[in-house]
Amino acid sequence: MPQADDAAREALAHRPHLDPASMRAHYRAEGLRTEDLADDPYQQFLRWFEDAVTAGLHEPNAMVVSTADERGRPSSRTVLLKQFDERGFVFYTNYGSRKGREIEANPYVSLLFPWHAIARQVIVSGRAERTGRDETAAYFRTRPHGSQLGAWASEQSSKVASREELDRTYEALAARYPETEDVPVPPRWGGYRVVAETVEFWQGRENRLHDRLRYVRTDAGWTVERLCP
Ligand SMILES: Cc1cc2nc3c(=O)[nH]c(=O)nc-3n(C[C@H](O)[C@H](O)[C@H](O)COP(=O)(O)O)c2cc1C
């Protein structure tokens, strides 16, 4: 669409502050040294997660999860990290969603924490496995009543005719399960735990000479390698 391209260029010419090519943030000077890293990536993640929380980042537990279908076509979306420890990183979703179907066909996923405000990102690659039903149920009970109903109301990733249809489904569920009633855990809803194989910690530095330190799981434990920025 050449006309549309021209229009977009014209619009940017009058608003240079919206031109992404001219946007350049200056990154912090403090570096990341191998000798300062924790012994395993989960402890290191805890340190950086604490920094992200302390810095007041909005939703520091938001992460982009990328999956690929059986033909290798990727897709990404944001989800919320709900738990992490040496067993892995946990998020909750609908198993019948696009991501759920892709994980069932190909369990290899990537997680990315985009902590731009503090010039950091963490990238995890590994295998996703379903959390146990007891663990899922324990987390489901902590969700607000409305979110519990929402998990039932939405066939995540499938087409819906209208907003009204979605609202009607929710209202019918709200009538069936008032605030005083326990909402059962939807059978198609639950957690995935991503068991890390590599975890990269990226720290922005001056002159684009960023630090990238990557933990790699081996039979003997975790090793760390430095990557060019
Ligand atoms: C900040 C944020 C947090 C989100 N958290 C979740 C989540 O924890 N679980 C989830 O299933 N979807 C979450 N979503 C919605 C997903 O990004 C996505 O729209 C949905 O999971 C359907 O993805 P899919 O069709 O690729 O499977 C979140 C979206 C945003 C913007």
TrEMBL record:
Note on cofactor: Binds 1 FMN per subunit.
Entry keyword set: Flavoprotein, FMN, Oxidoreductase, Pyridoxine biosynthesis
Top-level enzyme category: oxidoreductase
Enzyme Commission (EC) number: 1.4.3.5
Residues annotated to bind FMN: 77-82, 92-93, 98-99, 121, 156-157, 202, 212
Keyword Flavoprotein listed: yes
Span of domain Pyridoxine 5'-phosphate oxidase dimerisation C-terminal: 189-229
InterPro entries the record matches: Pyridox_Oxase, Pyridox_Oxase_CS, Pyridox_Oxase_N, Pyridoxamine_oxidase_dimer_C, Split_barrel_FMN-bd
The protein's required cofactors: FMN
Catalytic reaction list: pyridoxine 5'-phosphate + O2 = pyridoxal 5'-phosphate + H2O2; pyridoxamine 5'-phosphate + O2 + H2O = pyridoxal 5'-phosphate + H2O2 + NH4(+)
Biological or metabolic pathway of the protein: Cofactor metabolism; pyridoxal 5'-phosphate salvage; pyridoxal 5'-phosphate from pyridoxamine 5'-phosphate: step 1/1; Cofactor metabolism; pyridoxal 5'-phosphate salvage; pyridoxal 5'-phosphate from pyridoxine 5'-phosphate: step 1/1
Annotated positions binding substrate: K82, Y139, R143, S147, R208, L209, H210
Role played: Catalyzes the oxidation of either pyridoxine 5'-phosphate (PNP) or pyridoxamine 5'-phosphate (PMP) into pyridoxal 5'-phosphate (PLP).
Subunit-structure text: Homodimer.
Family per record: Belongs to the pyridoxamine 5'-phosphate oxidase family.
PANTHER family per UniProt: PYRIDOXINE-5'-PHOSPHATE OXIDASE (PTHR10851:SF0), PYRIDOXINE-5-PHOSPHATE OXIDASE (PTHR10851)
Name the record gives this protein: Pyridoxine/pyridoxamine 5'-phosphate oxidase
Organism: Streptomyces macrosporus
Underlying gene: pdxH
